Amino acid sequence: MSKLFTPVHLAVPEGPGLTLRNRTVLAPMCQYSVTTLDGVPHAWHLAHLGARAAGGFGLVFTEAAAITAQGRISDQDAGIWNDAQGRAWSPIVDFIHSQGAAAGIQLAHAGGKASTYAWLPQQVAEHKIGSISATDGGWETLGPAETEIFGLTSPWSMTLEQIAASVQDWADAALRADAAGFDVAQIHAAHGYLVHQFLSPLTNTRTDAYGGSFENRTRYAREVITAVRAAWPAHKPLAIRFSGDDWVEGGWRIADTVRFAAEAFELGVSAFDLSSAGIGKYHGPSGPGFQVPLAAAVKQAVPDAFVTAVGMINDPSQAEQVLVTGSADGVSIGRAALKNPNWPAVAASELGASRDDIPFAAQYWRAHW
Ligand code: FNR
């Protein structure tokens, strides 16, 4: 039996925890598909996530679900800032469950990277790239400081009152996610979005209690984790996604992530996903498994957590190697799962699983016969 298709257990503060049927995780991926612009997920999200649950993933993450309207990357993002959105996620979660997968939601706030055009072919063809113009309905954004990212419109520096309100927004979103039936909530602390903007010295130039020292720059993230952990049921695992490294001298580096991961674990985070970058031009490595060393470093710091690697892990035997070498406990699959929603089922077959152990929907049994 391959390690990739061995069940894995995620610890929780109270109760038995969550067991995933295997160690394949669908990476969160924005769909920019909310055509009614109200953040309410619909048939596309059901079809997209449902197909990948049927395709065998152990844990299926939604796209970055905005915790406030202001925190949306684009106006076509799905959200979890109101109850109508929560109710719309519920049947999607039910379907994911019906296929034997666990359902995760990525809670997200884009901060100074909010209010951008949806990254879809038509918008790109029309040169609608970057900040949405005011005439197209762009909105004001918030960040730790007025640092411009990627040439986007600068955010407003958050007041202490706005920081406190924002922490509450994360907790409220977690409550809605719980009501919708999600099993795992993941705090999006990666890719240059709001939490990462606080962590990184590249974007956080504050001089108050939320900026400067490591302790101050991590304060917002600690408060968010604490508030979400209190709102999110103790029997459900809390996850976080980090940009493990800005790949820039003077930025947020892997040593910072390792140090903060240990703190996050103490605060009740039991699953870590290690991506990288998102602030400024990309200076990091590339190639198959290029972010695996980041996961391996965090795995050493929090050996009892469920740590996943992500980034160009496309090949089943490569994924298996990541696990066998102890670099991570699972793999998050992004683009390879867009190409093939049945990535896990195919991978299990390629790794030699017996027919009974291949995670496929009953309706598809003859594909594996
Ligand atoms: C992404 N990615 C991403 N990451 C994230 O944390 N939240 C998100 O909503 C999105 N959205 C998104 C949309 C699309 C279309 C792609 C391709 C990617 C990043 C993604 O989760 C993953 O980290 C990268 O794609 C790298 O993994 P792969 O694709 O090499 O397996």
What's this, in brief?
The protein has 369 residues and is an alpha/beta fold. Helices cover 33% and strands 15% of the residues. The protein has a single domain (3-367), classed as TIM Barrel.
Can you tag this structure with a few keywords?
369 residues, binds ligand FNR, alpha/beta, TIM Barrel, two-stranded antiparallel ribbon, Aldolase_TIM, 8-stranded parallel beta barrel, 12 helices, 33% helix
Q: Could you describe the 3D structure shown?
A:
The chain is an alpha/beta fold. It has a single domain, classed as TIM Barrel (Alpha-Beta Barrel), CATH 3.20.20. Helices cover 33% and strands 15% of the residues. It is built from twelve helices and twelve strands. The chain has helices spanning 43-54, 83-98, 121-125, 160-180, 194-199, 214-217, 219-231, 254-266, 292-301, 316-324, 335-339, 343-350; strands at residues 8-10, 18-20, 24-26, 59-66, 102-108, 142-143, 156-157, 184-189, 238-243, 269-275, 306-310, 330-333. The strands form three sheets. The protein has an eight-stranded parallel β-barrel with strand order 3-4-5-8-9-10-11-12, surrounded by seven helices. Strands 1-2 form a two-stranded antiparallel sheet. A two-stranded parallel ribbon has the order 6-7. Helix 1 (43-54) packs parallel to helix 2. The radius of gyration is 19 Å and the shape is globular. It starts with 7 loop residues before the first strand and ends in a 19-residue tail after the last helix. It binds ligand FNR. Ligand FNR binds next to strand 4 and helix 11. Ligand FNR is lined by residues 27-30, 63-64, 106, 188, 190-191, 241, 275, 310-313, 333-336.
